[in-house]
Amino acid sequence: MNELTPQLIVDGAVPLHSVISPDGRWVAYTVAAITREEQHPSSALWVAATDGSSPPRKLTEGRARDSNPRWAPDSASLFFESDRLTRGTAQLHRIPVDGGQARALTTWRSGIRDHLPLADGRRVAVMAEDPPSDEDERRKAERDDAKVWGQQVPYGRLRLLELDTGRSRVVDGLGDRHVVEVTQRPDGGPLAVLSRPTPELDPVSPTFELHVVDPETMKIQNLGQGALEASSPTWWSTDGSWHLCYLATTPPGPVGGRAVFDLAVPENDAAQEHHNLTSGMAMCPSGLAQVADGPPLALFADGLDTAIHRLDPGTRRFQPMSRLKGYAASLTAGRSGEAVAVLASTAYEPRNVHAGPPAGRLARLSDTRPELREIRWGTQERLSYHARDGLDLDGLLILPVGRSREDGPFPLITLVHGGPYARYADQFLLGTSPSAQWLATAGYAIFLPNPRGGEGHGHAFAAAVAGAVGTQEWTDITSGIDLLIADGIADPDRLGIGGWSHGGFMAAWAVGQTSRFKAAVMGAGISHWGMLVATGEWGIWDAGLGGSCGWEAAGPHRHDQLSPISYASKISTPVLILHGEDDTNVPVGQSTYFHRALRRFGVEHEFVVYPREGHSILERNHQLDVLRRTRAWFDRWLSTPAV
């Protein structure tokens, strides 16, 4: 067995963007490095036989960022995006699957954002920004670069590119709207287009609209506003009529579980009711897959596992087809729906491409991290327990490497997931912020709770944190810790807590509520919800969690009650604060505020800011630092007491 090192964790690759061919015979996917050593990351395209009859083949060298593969309708070639012509600017390329060189199809100054090959084989729908005008270039050269909200990010327009001539036509009828996603009807008919008012995600009044575009006449049919965070428009037909379904947050929002909404596509612009097809389900849809000859398939987060369902056209309800142990994402289906592919991971197997029949066993096709098979891992167990109010909860426990329950009690580190609309599935947990299995190699037991507010248990479970973060969500976590102490697994005198993003918020919240934790790690966490509404990307989503914005009236405000900064004077636990300097999701001011409060009250802490990093830490040396510094911090405060 080999030793697990920080270098082994970060110096690997992961599969992304898996997509199955229309004939169901092949799966194409991207393989990208976990870490980034240069300014512009690189990735390669691979292709594998769905039935596993031949080993995966590397299609591109990976010297540039080759990504987002999409199949030609005849399954003989792949379209993809690459910045090989100009680093940092993606252009549309095409490559034969049976071998040959990739050919650039666009050389547009602004590059492209996304693409969709059309069923006629002659055109590709391309989403691209308007090129800068001569006036724009002049102002840039003269440093006349005032930023006007709603104008500083170029709009993504929908263009139809003719492959024979290289000419493109802009779909003008969408007006001044930013195109987000496009899907073609499986019979080669019109396009479903999802748009929003501005390229920037509006943090105050986010709206998404659905449109139908005839690619021949360019006629636009407006279907009106979709639900919040609409995505994945998917066509299907029943009784001779066409429908569109899509994923979105369940009303009233913005906090709540994801749902599948459906509407009949009318002959004109008449408004249609959007029906929630997943209402009342105790699981959460995470993906949709369009098929040509039947209703759509859907992927569901179901507790610690994942399930594939198919829509029943008669009842308009999703029916189970198969259950996948652990985590799965990125569901994609062939034209007939007889073969599907996902990115999947189980407790001791990292994420890889899997494929097979939707109602049968999916076989692993890729093998991106074979070197990890030589590592000994901490035993990962499923947990099931009850909240204080009796609500059923689940989570995971990872024991120290080479130890069993009988060897306890152990120092316990609780790692809270982000979101809060996320979850711990029973998957391989070797990340960098912070890493469960990495800490288990140092002798720690790791508790990974799924408190209310997360994904996998339906809308009501997810919506329970609306205006209430840190309340029952917090006691859900402490109930699990108390259970592990009672079972003799956790040492009550050596408890630590940490997390990233919302997990960072929960770590900051925890140390203001109790002194039972001897160390905490706050990674890119929230210290004040009102300030996050003012400066973060998500606006009303954050207000939905914190309970208020601050502009409603004179305080006190609900978000003050739910902000860790309000309890800073009570903190005695040593805190390690980690944050990316260029984070726009949770700006670094959140950690700066917390750091200043801890200084004011003389609390032992360390404040680390990573230059050039956003909400996720991507540079290799920074990832190594997070791994080493996190473990060293817990070692410092949770070391074995002297006998």
Automatic annotation (TrEMBL):
Coiled coil: none annotated. Residues 47-70 are annotated as: Disordered. Residues 58-68 have a biased composition (Basic and acidic residues). GO terms for molecular function: aminopeptidase activity; serine-type endopeptidase activity. GO terms for biological process: proteolysis. Residues 435-638 form the Peptidase S9 prolyl oligopeptidase catalytic domain. Gene3D superfamilies: alpha/beta hydrolase, TolB, C-terminal domain. SUPFAM superfamilies: alpha/beta-Hydrolases, DPP6 N-terminal domain-like. It comes from the Bacteria. Keywords: Aminopeptidase, Hydrolase, Protease, Serine protease. PANTHER family: DIPEPTIDYL PEPTIDASE FAMILY MEMBER 6, SERINE PEPTIDASE S9 FAMILY MEMBER. This is Dipeptidyl aminopeptidase/acylaminoacyl peptidase. The lineage of its organism: Bacteria, Bacillati, Actinomycetota, Actinomycetes, Streptosporangiales.
